[in-house]
Design a protein that fits this description.
mainly alpha; two-stranded parallel ribbon; Rossmann fold; 170 residues
Length: 170
């Protein structure tokens, strides 16, 4: 999960359900975010900062991209990235996961995990910020399907949500 307490806490219910179904749960990331992690879940420290361009150092997208390209050009992060990838490889070999859940902030890591031939699921731990005709607003209880009626209903739910929450347009 993204290194933030809110992102971690948002996954505990799902992790508990998966664990009750017989799965062993591992949280991978920074130690400081493990202090509130329920004791029944395993912890494994590995730096989540593998793709430097994805870590927001400033609010300027252009500045972040410039830093990423400069770092790539100078190979500033190549040794560190190789070490981190090796840690992921070793852990994956050790625990042999059936599925990998990634916070949507780290969906770019799916490229890294692809070589393990394990299903990868992106988990969005925050409210969706963009309207999608296949995904209803966060507070909706509607479970969409591929029918035209469902798509129209999802669109209706989004427009209703936006009408009642004008700040949601941004």
């Amino acid at each position: 999960m993204h290194p933030s307490f809110g992102h971690q806490h948002a996954t505990y219910k799902l992790a508990g359900i998966l664990q009750e179904a017989g799965n062993k749960i591992y949280y991978i990331g920074e130690n400081k975010y493990f202090k509130n992690l329920p004791p029944e879940f395993n912890r494994q420290y590995i730096s989540p900062h593998i793709f430097s361009f994805a870590e927001y150092k400033t609010t300027s997208v252009w500045q972040n991209m410039k830093s990423a390209f400069e770092g790539k050009r100078k190979h500033r992060y190549s040794d560190l990235n190789r070490q981190i990838i090796k840690q992921y490889d070793e852990l994956t070999e050790k625990i042999k996961p059936d599925v990998i859940l990634l916070d949507h902030h780290y969906v770019q890591k799916a490229v890294l995990y692809y070589k393990y031939h394990v299903p990868i699921i992106s988990v969005q731990t925050a409210q969706a910020s963009e309207m999608d005709v296949n995904v209803p607003p966060f507070r909706s209880s509607h479970i969409p399907d591929q029918s035209l009626c469902s798509k129209f209903y999802v669109r209706y739910l989004w427009y209703s949500y936006i009408a009642l929450n004008p700040q949601a347009k941004n």
